[in-house]
């Protein structure tokens, strides 16, 4: 083995009386990838924050290339050669890609900025991270995945010795992820070390040389990736056996009788430059998946259905009856629920407690003549939270809950309405394995109870594991419909990718 | 610190003890933790303790009554403002609404206009007309903010100019006095030792308290104030909530206009704009967040009393009006500082 | 019980305890010493500052305890301040009201508490309760001032176009000055013709904008009466920018008249730009106000109106009467 780049000995961190990291000892040799996994709240973020100079450890020591490493702030960490690519992006939406990439040291010329050089170097960097966009476009106009790539580019540019990736693939499409993996391997071969944090265990196993499993701030497992497999990791993470991620679906009876109208049907739905002639149907009790790359129009299609974006042509039918002036209120009356992609912005009142969030869509049902029936409402909220196995303090503001619990609240909000139609957009993004499993079983339970589910996800395992049927979208069109028997990663990818690209 | 059954008011202020994400509250003394959020109200008690040795006059019944009495119309204004601040907006048109409503109501009552039918001179109808006018002005603000997506700051600022100008234009700058004596007597009568305006303000505070805690509307106000988009997606009638919230504020301004008119026995077409800042200050001291989503009716009552108490006590110390201004400004800034600290703390938690 | 409720309870308990605790005026007064409240509407012009100084002098001579409040133009605040003076058990109030109507409830409050109240320099609207007013006879002083201006104008031998800057119409003094002006103008239709009436609401900016516009609309204006001296700076700069600010002996001189007798007016007279100025006798008025309060405290009756006859100062009597003009005294301090 080559020399050790990073060595942590007995690193400790506690907040008040809660020990978040307990005597963590790990070393990362130069030119290797360390995979770091653990459930939310296991102490991963705290460790990354210590490395990134955001937090100072309470005990233990860290050495970087044999020298004591105690960065006072993120800038000092970056100077020492440690870059953390955060899950939450720190980009300036109103600046261009190039400006964001070179923000800390814009190439200067005379008194201005050397625009030409900026453009040239930014374009190089974009090629390197595999993003085909003009460096002059504004961050505002980019998808979350593209932004993630910019963030990665920013870390690469400074020539860091240790790059920490925190969930880099959550908003990336499969090809984008693949490109990132290649990039990581390339960096490794150039002698840089990587710490790779992810909930996606198969990615971690493929990419990492060594894998570290954290649970409740304690190192559970630290071993070479070749000695490990997913079930071992999961057991180490959750501390219990987890036989199956996806619940077994009841076999679906053949419901698609042409005579009976579908619960939700789209006919020729079109929006200029975005969605082209999309027709599909979702029957009661069915989970229909929408696969596709980022920007293929899946989220946009859901927004159109829900009435957030205008429709240029086509119609949406509920039980065979066209529904024209669609809006959230009308949809909710018709029994639809929409779990949006971004729960922080679109789904939750972050400064309210669990109860208020659970009841957000149901207050009208729990009021008489404008007066709240608070006891009845609270009981109903508690009941559904229990059903969904909501953990964490329910009195505390939702901002302080973990991603998994937040997402459970979004489900609780809609579950309370007993939806007949459920639109799901990336329902398990940024959610730990345990909560993921519980959300999956919730989705299946709803479907088994007769809800028509339309599921958009970038995790192909999720689509394959949950759906009865799959539509693949590409450039705003439905290009293939797959039955359960035909599901496979290759099939989905083949349809999702441009034919030219494959050739 | 046990939460009673009122999770509806400003949950962001409630600290609690266990999630690993917390950094700052850990080492806090319980007293300090309790101070958090209700700082403004608690400071009143502290302030009283500090100021008392220098002006023992403050402890006379007359002075206490004066503090309460002076706070009444301000409380009405602040309660109106609170709803709009809760929604993440602001209503700067207060002085304009006060001027216009008072001169229009007074003009009706005193039969200033030949064209107005005789029944408009009926005081109760004129008062109702004034309140309605305020509500309609507020609803127009709400419409501009929600449907036309104009910034509340801009809409209400323009409105202040337009309404204030209209009031001067209608009256040619002259005040309207000669209000009917029986009406003034009724408006200035004391019940149980307190002026009727105090009782009106207290009732309004109770209404606001109940609305914010017990009604569907109140729940929606909080939801829209915290995250209008999430509220919309969850089927909340955001447009209606915005319009009604601004209309409430307009009606409160109109009510304050009537209280001021009754007190001064004169309707004046110009009204000093400083009252607006007092109202916003009272709301902020009472824990209302200027970024929306947090408010409490009891807090506003405390904030209003704080402002009134400060003005009264500093006057008793023979300090000039500008000293009072400086003190008020500092206190409001302090309250805003605590509010910002609170939010910075929750943002820090978010990151860690 | 939660902290929150505890805190409310605590705060209200303190207020309550404070209310029950102590009902008598705290500061002990020396026998025979009176505590006099002075409530000014504003201190923004020299006239009010000079008045306050004179009132203080007058009260200090009698060894009174003085409590001062200034409302800064806010009638509601003034009401609160007067009420606060009453709760502090003053023995008399000198009030400069914001306007003639809003002082009615203040007078009533004082009457109710049996505290003598003297309105200084501005009267109240009809219907106000018993009170004493010390006021310059605005109408007759204005009449005398404008008559003097007309006398100057008559020498031109032609009809002059005239403008008047009107004050806040809520202020009875402003109305009386306007009326005094109008009466004299109506008596001399052969000498002046009013072409511009500029509302100022006692506001420097509005005055400046108004006079500038008037001079542009009617460049031949040669006769300007300004309802208060404190607006003269606006008039001067407007005239200067029109190149019309000329000494009295210049054939194109604009005949100027003012009211109050402040330092600006005194300077203009001395330098030979101002033709006539109606002077209020500040010292006399302050003396009258304080006298009245002391008399009422002794149980004597006082006339309801104590007029200040005032006088007109002009180029002719400047040397002999300058001493009586309060503005000349203010000026000499500078």
In short:
The complex is a heterotrimer of chains A (503), B (352) and C (334). Chain B has 352 residues and is mainly α. Helix content of chain B is 68%, strand content 1%.
How would you describe this structure in keywords?
heterotrimer, B: about 350 residues, mainly alpha, ABC transporter involved in vitamin B12 uptake, BtuC, two-stranded antiparallel ribbon, globular, disordered N terminus, C: about 325 residues, alpha/beta, Rossmann fold, 2 domains, 6-stranded parallel sheet, 6-stranded mixed sheet, 12 helices, 12 strands, elongated
Summarize the helices and strands and which ones pair or pack:
The complex is a heterotrimer of chains A (503), B (352) and C (334).
Chain A: E1 4-15, E2 18-29, E3 33-37, H1 44-51, E4 59-64, E5 67-68, H2 74-80, E6 82-85, H3 97-101, E7 108-109, E8 112-113, H4 115-129, H5 144-157, E9 162-166, H6 174-189, E10 193-197, H7 201-207, E11 210-215, E12 218-224, H8 230-238, E13 264-271, E14 275-282, E15 287-292, H9 298-306, E16 313-318, E17 321-322, H10 328-333, E18 336-339, H11 343-347, H12 354-358, E19 367-368, E20 371-372, H13 374-387, H14 403-415, E21 421-425, H15 433-448, E22 452-456, H16 460-466, E23 469-474, E24 477-483, H17 489-496, H18 499-502
Parallel strand pairs in A: 3-10, 3-11, 6-9, 9-10, 15-22, 15-23, 18-21, 21-22
Antiparallel strand pairs in A: 1-2, 1-4, 4-5, 7-8, 11-12, 13-14, 13-16, 16-17, 19-20, 23-24
Helix pairs in contact in A: 4-5, 14-15
Chain B: H1 30-35, H2 39-51, H3 61-86, H4 94-109, H5 123-146, H6 152-171, H7 181-188, E1 190-191, E2 194-195, H8 196-214, H9 216-226, H10 228-233, H11 238-264, H12 274-285, H13 297-316, H14 321-351
Antiparallel strand pairs in B: 1-2
Chain C: H1 3-21, E1 35-40, H2 46-61, E2 65-70, H3 75-87, E3 92-95, H4 103-112, E4 117-120, E5 132-136, H5 138-154, E6 160-166, H6 172-187, E7 192-199, H7 204-217, E8 221-226, H8 232-241, E9 255-260, H9 263-271, E10 276-279, H10 282-297, E11 305-308, E12 311-314, H11 318-321, H12 326-333
Parallel strand pairs in C: 1-2, 1-3, 3-4, 4-5, 5-11, 6-7, 6-8, 8-9, 9-10
Antiparallel strand pairs in C: 10-12
Helix pairs in contact in C: 2-10, 3-4, 5-6, 7-8, 9-12
């Amino acid at each position: 083995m080559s020399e050790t780049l990073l060595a942590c000995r007995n690193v400790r961190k506690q907040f008040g009386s809660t020990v978040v990291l307990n005597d963590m000892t790990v070393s990362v040799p130069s030119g290797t990838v360390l995979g770091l996994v653990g459930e939310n709240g296991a102490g991963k973020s705290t460790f990354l924050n210590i490395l990134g100079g955001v937090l100072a450890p309470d005990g233990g020591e860290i050495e970087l290339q044999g020298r004591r490493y105690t960065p006072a702030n993120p800038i000092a960490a970056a100077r020492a050669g440690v870059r953390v690519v955060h899950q939450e992006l720190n980009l300036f939406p109103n600046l261009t890609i190039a400006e964001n990439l070179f923000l800390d040291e814009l190439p200067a010329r005379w008194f201005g900025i050397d625009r030409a050089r900026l453009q040239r170097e930014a374009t190089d960097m974009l090629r390197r991270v595999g993003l085909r966009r003009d460096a002059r476009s504004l961050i505002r106009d980019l998808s979350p995945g593209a932004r993630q790539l910019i963030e990665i580019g920013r870390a690469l540019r400074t020539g860091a010795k240790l790059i920490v990736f925190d969930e880099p693939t959550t908003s990336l499409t499969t090809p984008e992820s693949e490109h990132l993996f290649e990039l990581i391997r390339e960096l490794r071969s150039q002698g840089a070390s990587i710490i790779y944090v992810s909930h996606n265990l198969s990615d971690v196993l493929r990419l990492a040389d060594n894998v570290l499993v954290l649970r409740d701030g304690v190192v559970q497992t630290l071993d070479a990736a070749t000695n490990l497999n997913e079930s071992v990791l999961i057991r180490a993470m959750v501390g219990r056996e987890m036989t199956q991620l996806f619940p077994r679906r009841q076999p679906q009876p053949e419901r698609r009788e042409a005579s009976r109208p579908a619960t939700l049907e789209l006919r020729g739905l079109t929006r200029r430059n975005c969605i082209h002639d999309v027709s599909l149907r979702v029957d009661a009790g069915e989970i229909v998946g929408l696969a596709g790359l980022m920007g293929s129009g899946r989220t946009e299609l859901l927004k159109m259905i829900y009435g957030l974006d205008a429709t240029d042509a086509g119609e949406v039918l509920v039980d065979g009856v066209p529904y024209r002036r669609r809006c959230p209120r009308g949809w909710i009356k018709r029994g639809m629920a929409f779990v949006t992609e971004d729960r922080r912005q679109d789904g939750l009142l972050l400064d309210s407690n669990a109860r208020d969030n659970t009841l957000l869509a149901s207050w009208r049902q729990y009021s008489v003549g404008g007066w709240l029936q608070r006891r009845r409402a609270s009981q109903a909220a508690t009941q559904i939270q229990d059903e969904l196995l909501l953990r964490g303090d329910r009195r505390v503001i939702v901002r302080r809950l973990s991603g998994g619990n937040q997402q459970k609240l979004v489900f609780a909000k809609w579950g309370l309405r007993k939806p007949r139609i459920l639109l799901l957009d990336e329902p398990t993004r940024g959610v730990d394995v345990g909560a993921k499993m519980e959300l999956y079983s919730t989705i299946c339970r709803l479907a088994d109870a007769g809800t028509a589910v339309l599921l958009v996800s970038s995790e192909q395992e999720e689509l394959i594991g949950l759906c009865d049927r799959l539509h693949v979208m590409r450039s705003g069109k439905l290009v293939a419909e797959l039955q359960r028997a035909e599901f496979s990663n290759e099939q989905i990818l083949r349809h999702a990718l441009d034919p030219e690209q494959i050739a | 610190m046990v939460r009673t059954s009122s999770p509806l008011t400003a949950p962001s202020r409630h600290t609690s003890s266990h999630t690993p994400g917390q950094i700052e509250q850990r080492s806090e003394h319980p007293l300090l933790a309790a101070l958090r959020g209700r700082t403004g109200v608690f400071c009143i008690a502290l302030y009283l303790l500090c100021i008392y040795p220098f002006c023992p006059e403050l402890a006379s019944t007359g002075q206490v009554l004066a503090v309460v009495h002076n706070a009444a119309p301000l409380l009405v204004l602040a309660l109106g403002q609170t709803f709009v601040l809760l929604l993440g907006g602001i209503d700067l048109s207060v002085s304009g609404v006060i001027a216009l409503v008072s001169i229009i109501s007074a003009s009706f009552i005193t039969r200033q206009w030949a064209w107005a039918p005789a029944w408009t001179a009926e005081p109760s109808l004129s008062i109702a007309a004034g309140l309605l006018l305020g509500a309609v002005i507020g609803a127009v603000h709400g419409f501009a903010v929600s449907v036309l997506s104009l910034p509340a700051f801009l809409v209400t600022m323009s409105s202040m100019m337009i309404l204030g100008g209209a009031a001067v234009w209608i009256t040619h700058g002259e005040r309207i006095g000669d209000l009917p004596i029986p009406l003034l007597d009724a408006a200035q009568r004391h019940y149980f030792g307190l002026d009727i305006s105090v009782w009106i303000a207290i009732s309004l505070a109770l209404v606001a308290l109940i609305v914010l805690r017990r009604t569907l509307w109140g729940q929606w106000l909080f939801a829209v104030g915290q995250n209008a988009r999430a509220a919309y997606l969850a089927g909340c009638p955001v447009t209606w909530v915005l319009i009604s919230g601004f209309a409430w504020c307009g009606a409160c301004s109109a009510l304050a206009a009537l209280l001021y008119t009754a007190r001064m026995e004169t309707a004046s077409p110009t009204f000093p704009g400083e009252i607006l800042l007092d109202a916003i200050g009272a709301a902020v001291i009472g824990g209302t967040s200027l970024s929306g989503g947090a408010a409490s009716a009891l807090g506003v009552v405390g904030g209003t009393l704080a402002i009134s108490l400060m003005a009264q006590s500093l006057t008793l110390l023979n300090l000039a009006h500008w000293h009072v201004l400086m003190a008020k400004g500092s206190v409001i800034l302090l309250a805003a500082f605590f509010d910002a600290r609170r939010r910075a703390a929750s943002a820090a938690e978010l990151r860690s | 019980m939660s902290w929150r409720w505890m805190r409310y309870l605590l705060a209200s308990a303190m207020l309550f305890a404070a209310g029950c605790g102590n009902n008598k005026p705290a500061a002990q007064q020396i026998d025979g010493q009176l505590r006099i409240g002075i409530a000014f509407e504003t201190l923004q012009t020299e006239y009010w500052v000079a008045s306050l100084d004179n009132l203080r002098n007058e009260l200090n001579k009698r060894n009174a305890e003085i409590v001062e409040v200034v409302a800064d133009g806010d009638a509601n605040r003034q009401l609160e301040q007067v009420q606060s003076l009453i709760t502090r058990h003053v023995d008399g109030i000198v009030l400069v009201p914001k306007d003639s109507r809003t002082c009615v409830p203040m007078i009533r409050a004082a009457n109710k508490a049996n505290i003598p109240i003297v309105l200084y320099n501005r009267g109240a609207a009809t219907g106000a309760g018993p009170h004493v007013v010390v006021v310059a006879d605005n109408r007759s002083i204005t009449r005398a001032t404008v008559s003097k201006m007309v006398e100057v104008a008559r020498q031109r031998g032609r009809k002059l176009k005239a403008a008047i800057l009107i004050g806040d119409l809520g202020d009875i003094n402003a109305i009386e000055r306007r009326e005094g002006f109008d009466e004299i103008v109506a008596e001399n239709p052969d000498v002046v013709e009013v072409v511009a009436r500029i509302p100022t609401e006692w506001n420097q900016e509005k005055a400046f904008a108004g006079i500038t516009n008037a001079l542009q609309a009617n460049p031949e204006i040669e006769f300007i009466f300004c309802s208060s001296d404190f607006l003269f700076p606006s008039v001067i700069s407007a005239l200067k920018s029109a190149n019309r600010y000329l000494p009295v002996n210049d054939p194109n001189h604009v005949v100027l008249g003012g009211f109050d007798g402040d330092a600006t007016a005194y300077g203009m007279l001395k330098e030979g730009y101002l033709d006539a100025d109606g002077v209020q006798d500040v010292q006399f008025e302050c003396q009258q106000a304080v006298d009245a309060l002391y008399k009422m405290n002794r149980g004597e009756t006082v006339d309801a109106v104590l007029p200040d006859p005032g006088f007109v100062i002009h180029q002719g009597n400047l040397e002999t009467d300058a001493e009586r003009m309060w503005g000349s005294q203010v000026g000499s301090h500078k």
